[in-house]
Amino acid sequence: MSQAQRSSRxxxxxxxxxxxxxxxxxxxxxxxxxxxxxxxGTDALSTAQADHMIENVVGVFSxxxxxxxNFVVNGRDVLVPMAVEEPSVVAGASFMARLARNTGGFxxxxxxxxxxxxxxxxxxPDAEHARIALLAAKERIMQMATAADPVLxxxxxxxxDLEVRVLAGSPIxxxxxxxxxxxxxDAMGANTVNTALETIAPLVxxxxxxxxxxxxxxNLADRRLAAASATFxxxxxxxxxxxxxxxxDGVIAAWAFAVADPYRAATHNKGIMNxxxxxxxxxxxxxxxxxxxxxxxxxxSGRYTSLSTWACNADGDLTGSxxxxxxxxxxxxxxxxxxxxxxxxxxxxxxxxxxxxxIIVSVGLAQNxxxxxxxxxxxxxxxxMGLHARQIAIAAGARADQVEAVANQLVxxxxxxxxxALEILQAN
Length: 428
Prior knowledge:
By secondary structure, this protein is an alpha+beta fold. The chain folds into 3 domains: 3-110 and 230-378, 3-hydroxy-3-methylglutaryl-coenzyme A Reductase, Chain A, domain 2 (Alpha-Beta Complex), CATH 3.90.770; 114-217, Hydroxymethylglutaryl-CoA reductase, class I/II, NAD/NADP-binding domain (Alpha-Beta Plaits), CATH 3.30.70; 382-427, no CATH class. It starts with 17 loop residues before the first helix and ends with a helix. The strands form 3 sheets. The protein has a 4-stranded antiparallel sheet with strand order 3-8-10-9. Helix 10 crosses helix 15 (353-376), helix 11 packs across helix 15 (353-376) and helix 16 crosses helix 17. Helix content is 48%, strand content 18%. The chain has 18 helices and 10 strands. The chain has helices at residues 18-29, 33-37, 47-51, 89-101, 127-136, 138-147, 150-154, 190-208, 234-237, 244-260, 262-282, 287-298, 334-337, 339-348, 353-376, 380-395, 403-412, 418-427, and strands spanning 65-73, 76-83, 107-110, 114-122, 158-167, 175-183, 211-217, 225-232, 308-312, 318-325.
């Protein structure tokens, strides 16, 4: 299938069997038989491979891997692999991506892949004098940091800047902190940055007159931001008894609640991360780092608030935008060591870490709207519990041929509980 022929609008995809969906994705992405096999289940990552990835391996742990359809990001149709155990996430993102297609899809950007490495310098005789001395030696320090990874340097990466901060108010007194700004190209960059920090630490200690205590990259990657925006026609938001204007205004009111209240903002942003983390995990990236950076960024004003913004435009349509740190990579680490992560990147068809970040932030915005739309209308439980009923049926011991019937009965009775599922199974 040629690039020009490919559309992520896969009508009836949900109703196909798993094998049929897998075949559609394999053809769409041009997957080799080996890559397609990486989506095949628990054998995708062998215990032998896992044994080389972490310590004390006793087995492997699987999550459902779905594909969100309908996405158009910067004019390109994209199928998005998502690894997640929570029902309604893949469906919600896919549905909002379908609505966004009507206005051109998602427009996304990503800043330069610059990470921040931190050196904590203690026992400095004169912090201000040391700060000035370190800044005077900036070029020398940066050259040494870049030389720490000659391969990355050949690709155009390396040190970009150096900052020195004197922090007051810590429990142990004044602290001197050096920030190394480092371009990691298409890698997430943790190992690269930490190696560069180790390399420059002796020189920094010599110049400052102190001792370097910590050498570690920061996960508040606020120099490596991704942003997405989209417009949703009010008429497309209507369903059931709810008009488009009602849904639009309900979404905006729910967002305003998250802006004003950190208790609501935490769950609001969790809805964003439902989509973000699922793609980050599917591609073998560090979802803990992404979570840490996102929530720290949400509190950058000194008060925790919404990562996204929703509004009504002059045409009466709903507009949304999302900006957040997204330090992801397409080379190194599990993105290359894990066969399923490699296959997921092939399905996405990305050629740079920036392009991957643009897709991920678009999924986060879509998932945010899916949650807000449900909250602002019929409530989060109605659709979510319908999908959750399948999990309850399985947990109660339903066979594959019983799951749908048991789940449907639980939903009809508004009793999506394990005890009721057991009663249904015992009655049959």
